[in-house]
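Troubleshooting log. The previous structure file for this entry was overwritten by mistake, so regenerating from the original sequence record. Sequence copied from the archived sheet and checked twice against the printout by T.R.
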Amino acid sequence: MENQPFQEKLVEKKATYTLLKDDKFYIIEDVPARVNIETGEQLFSPETVEKLQKLIWEQKKPLRQITTSVYQFAS
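Regenerated output below.
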């Protein structure tokens, strides 16, 4: 019996990208990504990453804003 090479099962989907930068949390919706259907891992093309960085660094007016709670994990 031969060892089969591991194949990831990736599908093209729209994903939500999140980033915490300089104490600000950014959420970008509807980002094209390849998503592993088993693990949920999101893979973005280099072009998409460049566009994400530009969106965040340009600090344009967001589509909407949300408020969220922050907790500290205590052992």
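Residues 10-58 form one domain. Archived copy saved in two places this time.
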